[in-house]
Amino acid sequence: MVQPRSPAPAAASRGPTPASPAGPRALLPRAVRLAPGCSLGLPFPCRGARGLPFPCRGARGLPFPCRGARGWRKAPPKVRPRRRGSFSSHLDAALFRKKCRGPVTGGKCLCSPAPAASGPKCLCLSRVDWSALVPLWLRHRQLGLQAKGWNFMLEDSTFWIFGGSIHYFRVPREYWRDRLLKMKACGLNTLTTYVPWNLHEPERGKFDFSGNLDLEAFVLMAAEIGLWVILRPGPYICSEMDLGGLPSWLLQDPGMRLRTTYKGFTEAVDLYFDHLMSRVVPLQYKRGGPIIAVQVENEYGSYNKDPAYMAYVKKALEDRGIVELLLTSDNKDGLSKGIVQGVLATINLQSTRELQLLTTFLFNVQGTQPKMVMEYWTGWFDSWGGPHNILDSSEVLKTVSAIVDAGSSINLYMFHGGTNFGFMNGAMHFHDYKSDVTSYDYDAVLTEAGDYTAKYMKLRDFFGSISGIPLPPPPDLLPKMSYEPITPVLYLSLWDALKYMGEPIKSEKPINMENLPVNGGNGQSFGYILYETSITSSGVLSGRVRDRGQVFVNTVSIGFLDYKTTKIAVPLIQGYTVLRILVENRGRVNYGENIDDQRKGLIGNLYLNDSPLKKFRIYSLDMKKSFFQRFGLDKWSSLPETPTLPAFFLGSLSISSTPCDTFLKLEGWEKGVVFINGQNLGRYWNIGPQKTLYLPGPWLSSGINQVIIFEETMAGPALQFTETPHLGRNQYIKVTGWAGETEILSPASS
Question: Which of 142, 168, 655, 704 counts the most CB atoms within 10 A of its CB?
Fold first, then answer.
């Protein structure tokens, strides 16, 4: 929240008090004060009485209103092609109609063959210089967010950051507005989000910012709703995401050293930042957008393998036009090593016992600077085979209140967690390998489906008491539906499906997933991979399998190889024998010192009786949308009483009314993946804790909806639907303070 300067010097030096009765409208600095009558809480003027209360969408997403801004009018939809490297390339060289005041010869404007409309003035199309575009109100955006003394300052007024994290890539695009409105109604004023490199550049040099990955649309929607934005572009983001958001094709280099100034890594970062920052720069506060701060990397102090790396990332951002306040973010153990000259340090925590670090350690390393908790963990993530972690709402309120009372800004991580759709989840590997579940509910302020919680109500009351004005009403809950169960009627075993996949990759030795010659030479990022070879004897099979490999003799499963089981007995079978291993990438480690060692599939040789096997046939089973296009209806068979597994199962969900959110229950099924209308909902596994998969209503349609299940080991009779999620047995987090990221939880079962 923006706070006015206190007339009392002592109060001004200490910073604002959270109980200040002044509301957001009165507290905005003159440069960004809202227009009279505007109740939307926009972080930019509305230009008169509700005169275009949102950013202009017509001119390619300009983050300021066009109407009434000194005669500028919106252009026709035609725009010039984007020119890479241009400062205004993000605007696609936006064209505007403006009054030409240039020289006129013979009644014609020199920049147009048309006659001048009125004397020396005419309307013409021109590529606009940014400085000429800026209306008067934007010209006051000179200083941006600053760290001055104990306070954040936005222009000339004290500013408190009350933020919350939502990741656009974990929320269906159709629900972005709903989640952001709920954030605004909770009394928060700032959105924070990561930017996942691996999703935006799935193949080297090929970028995707469309659909659910439209970062610019998400940021502009936040501005429209009245939220500032702190962007966390990485390149590494952690975020419980596969390889911490780094693209897997980086691991094709056998000498790769991630998160260092290793040439192979920095060259890739430079190319990615060239593209990403051309989109981000125009969205900054000083360019008229809502981005008030940018984070440099993420929790690097806990990694700290190259003292030159953070300075490199800082320079990479600044060289590409980032001019807003720069921040770092570290937990307690990494704080001392994550400091960067000229960058404000912030802390991540979950316990009130760590609040002393805000005033002691931070003061010692960076002097008198504003305090901020960049990540206050409102809950925690879950791992397969573990419990569902929850944090009591009273504990959350107590800690948030203590943080604000200590004079610190705060960001709630997570405000809304969302879902690890597809295969995007990460993993942890300290003593044991543990992959994250599909749900990223996180026991956050909003549930996985965006519903309110006790935390939301308590925090809304708390932040509402600070704002001094009534908060906007919370949006209505989205309806849920319990659809009729469906029974798959068609099936295709994996072994029958192989003949529709084209020729396999042939190799003398096993090839790991990242180095497969697929996807334009970029390897395979996610999913499964199948290895086949021929054997002539029984014995003991051994090798490094990452992460879980089901072993078959012909089509008969004989067991699994993984991190704990590295050997398996192969029985004697007469005649020609095919040895098969179906390997699943369950998620690359996203936090820790071993991220360089995250190649998946068979790593190195596979041995039978200590002799390396040769002549492999390898199938890439990435299970993208295009993967299923090869399986026309004529390829499927009627479901037999005893299906051969692994297999794909095909059914249909019929909906006669407007589709609503629902949750899939897979009782009787063991382990696999579900696809609805081509959308990968994520993994299920009967070891829990998660027992349901979230299915967003916008991914359904009225009529027939295609449902495909890939099951590895045991098929159930039907798929059920329910209105309520079941995320597993609750286990309360006992907050005792940090002893390392993996040991933050000291749980007590409920």
Answer: 168
User: Is-catalytic flag, 712?
Assistant: no
- Please name which of 575, 501, 455, 587 lies closest in space to residue 183, comparing C-alpha atoms: 455
> 9-28 as b/e, with b when 16 or more CB fall inside 10 Å?
eeebeebbebebebbbbebb
If one compares 727 and 87, the residue with the highest pLDDT of the two is 727
Spatial separation of the C-alpha atoms in residues 683 and 674, rounded to whole Å: 7
| Phi, psi of 70, rounded to the nearest 5 degrees | 60, 40
Say how many residues make up the chain: 750
The radius of gyration computed from the CA coordinates of the chain, to the nearest angstrom, equals 28
pLDDT above 50 for 241: yes
Tens of pLDDT, residues 615-646: 999 999 999 999 999 999 999 999 999 999 99
CA separation for the pair 286, 537 (Å, rounded): 71
**Inter-axis angle of helices 309-319 and 263-280, to 10 degrees?**
30
- Apex 679 CA angle, 674 and 685, nearest 5: 25
Angle at 720 between CA 717 and CA 722, to 5 degrees: 165
Q: Of the residues 240, 299, 514, 584, which is catalytic?
A: 299
Which single residue is written with the structure tokens 């004989």? 558
Q: Tell me the three-class secondary structure of 696-737, residue by residue.
A: CHHHCCCEEEEEEEEECCCCCCCEEEECCCCCCCEEECCECC
> What span, in angstroms and rounded, lies between the C-alpha atoms of 477 and 451?
6
Cβ neighbors of 485 (< 8 A, separation 6 or more) are 718, 719, 720, 721
Answer for the pair 738, 354: CB distance below 8 angstroms, yes or no. yes
314-323, 572-581, 741-750: the lowest-pLDDT one: 741-750
Q: Report the alpha-carbon distance of residue 558 to residue 560 in Å, rounded.
A: 7
Mean pLDDT of 442-449: 98
d(CA 95, CA 82) in angstroms, rounded, equals 12
Helices 454-467 and 393-405 sit at what angle, rounded to 10 degrees? 20
Tell me if 669 sits within 8 A of 714, measured CB to CB: yes
Q: Which residues pair with 198 in a beta bridge?
A: none
Count Cα atoms within 13 angstroms, Cβ side, for 523: 18
Distances (CA, A) of 85 to 82, 167, 278, 286, 369: 9, 27, 7, 19, 35
Q: Give the separation between CA 481 and CA 485, rounded to whole angstroms.
A: 12
pLDDT above 50: residue 338: yes
Residues 197-202 have a mean pLDDT of 98
Average pLDDT on 591-604 reads: 97
Contact 538, 594 (CB under 8 A): no
User: What are the backbone angles phi and psi of residue 293, rounded to the nearest 5°?
Assistant: -160, 155
Residue reference for tokens 């590997």: 429
Active-site entry in 375, 584, 711, 741: 375
Q: How far is it, in rounded angstroms, from Cα 502 to Cα 731? A: 47
Q: Please give the C-alpha separations between residue 125 and each of 90, 99, 121, 389, in angstroms, as whole numbers.
A: 18, 9, 13, 58
- For residues 417 and 170, the answer to whether their CB atoms sit within 8 Å is yes
Please give the Cα distance from 128 to 662 (Å, whole number). 48
Is 662 strand, coil or helix? strand
